[in-house]
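Hi,

I'm pasting everything inline rather than attaching a file, because the server keeps stripping attachments. The sequence lines come first, and each chain or strand is labelled.
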Amino acid sequence: MSAQATKRLPVTKTPKVYIGGAFVRSESARTFKVSDAKGVFYGNIPQCTRKDLRNAVEAAAKAGPGWAKRTAYNRAQILYRLAEMIEARTPELVDSLVTFGAREADASKGMSVCVDRLIHYAGWADKYEQLLGSVNPVASAHFNFTVTEPMGVVGVIAPDSPPLLGLLSMIAPVIASGNTVVALASEKVPYPAVLLGEMLATSDLPGGVVNLLTGFRRELVPTFATHAHVRAVYAFAGPEDRKTLRLGAAASVKRVRFVDSETKWFADTAQGLGMIRDFVELKTTWHPIGS
Amino acid sequence: MARASRDSGGNRGRLIFGDLWEFDPAPETADPKLSARYDLFIGGAFVKPRTGRYFDSINPANERKLAEIALAGKVDVDAAYRAASRAFGPWSRLPGRERGKYLFRIARLLQDRAREFAVAETLDGGKPIKESRDFDVPMAAAHFFYHAGWADKLKYVAPGSTVAPLGVVGQVIPWNFPLLMLAWKLAPALAMGNCVVLKPAETTSITALKLGEILQDAGLPPGVVNFVTGAGETGAAVMGHPSAAKVAFTGSTEVGKAIMRQLAGTDRRMTMELGGKAANIVFEDAPLDQAVEGIVNGIFFNQGHVCCAGSRLLVQEGVAGRVVAKLKDRIRMLRVGDPLDKNTDLGAINSAAQLSTIRRLVASGVREGATMFQPPCSLPEKGFYFPPTLFTGVTQSHRIAREEIFGPVLSILTFRTVDEAIEKANNTPYGLSAGVWTDKGSRILRMSAELKAGVVWANTFNRFDPSSPFGGYKESGFGREGGRQGLLDYASHA
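And the predicted assembly:
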């Protein structure tokens, strides 16, 4: 047999979602097909269910206290480590984005922004407190101070474009302050998020801090809205999904923040202290002074 | 003549002075300068409601009519929003220095008329005069004074971003601290350059409308602040108005959720300051006498009509018996009655409706098996009153341990370890405030870090300050009031 006749068949990867630090299929064993930009079959993506979402919230809730108790310096280093992992696998991520229709230059620029944005938030992790908190000069014998605290489990619903930069730009400020995340990846371009899971797993980020789901918005948005343990939702959403999320949020007085197609993901305006502030609670303590 | 009051039971030999001396009446006599009828305050003037209708505001202490209040309909709310929208351009472009001076003026004019406002507040709402005089009115003035100084320093509110006012803000406030809640809402909104349409609670509109007079005296440009009065329907119109750039609500979690649903189809910004079921946690090493005073202040301040009231007492088992005994002694001495009397500790319940809510929940406590204690005290025949009430033997599943009673009713639970205290304290959908009583500074900080509440008081309770952000976690709402953080909730920042 000649060498040409035995062209090696590549081993393809089974796409799995990343929940509680493990790579799993949907509990329902449902999948949906994705094809590349040329319409060629690429793989079967887990079509996560409400139950998967609830499992992910449970994993996120379990991971929450430990992550919140890490020192700010430690969270900063772990975010930096995630950036290192992504930098090292940038060509693979660019390939994957191009496979699903991104222009090479955009994909490449997008990955640079992803890494730089993670480093931006790595740097914030031990600084935002000094800007968002305060010592308050009350008119009594008390040392009165306001500090931030993470809210707990935050739901993230990512845009389709850019699928990976959008997702990471939304996750990073939320976890920088000690929240944990349950994120729904782009429905149209889910595969890069599957790869991202592998980088999260090797980044020193404790399992459960970021949980990535794939699936259909229409099946999962209502559960993001109503799940009482999800304390805030950060979503790319049109008018109808916004209404669903707000109605659900009313039941447990949940915070909602939205991004839309106007968001300039590549620009510096898509990052900063404001995004961290949106997902922290403020706690004020009155500590007695004297004797 | 003093003699030791002797109970037949466990109080033998202990001096209890509470019922030994009659107090002479000591009524506050300052003139509240009330009008017989109050119109709406729109566009800087008092105007008759288009509905042509008025409703009575009564004195809950004796059920007598105090004044007639205009009932604002949808058309009136529209007119208020139009006036505010017209005023917004010039007001927001005014140099911060000038805006600030209006707020300083309002603070000063309110201080000038403090006693008059305190009496009006007590007549309309039923709270003891010593509270409206020493707390509500001075604190309201302090809020205007504090925020006045921010108006020309807005670039320091959110370092690194540019802040701008939002536009017209719709605000609805509750009846428990009518003037103070109004100040909490108005002062930061105005300092940031917004205009306001505010609805006071229907049982306590008078001090807002009296403040309208002060706004006129201060020369505040017409339309910057508008007061529309009425009940739930008017409130829904204020919250749902399409011209509102933001709404801010203080009230029950139930109504807060209804507003969130009402506005679900819009992109309206919101601040929600909702209910609470605060844990007040007493450790064995706490200064117990001080703690007992704090517990009393925590639950009986303003008849317990306080969203952050310390309504769940968690006391460590080793001192539970002593604390409960001291509490029982202490509340025998509380004077319940005429709110205008300077010696009154508990005034009138704000309304008949609230009184029946309290009675219903108290009955549920008895029915579910908790043990009730009320000191002997005679209540006035007319008016709405409820005696200070303790429940012991309360479990976490009792309604009186879960639901906001908003009355002078304390549910007492016990705990053994720090972890148990934390778990019990956080076992509630609310998260507004909490109290910790201990001699250990390190324990205060540990507890503060673990308690899911927006405000934690250590060895004190129910303290407030304009510079100190206030607001809740979880179903107690979102957004803060007070401090730099509260101010920022009235701004857009980019």
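Residues 150 and 191 of chain B are 6 Å apart (CA to CA).

If the labels don't parse on your end, tell me and I'll reformat.
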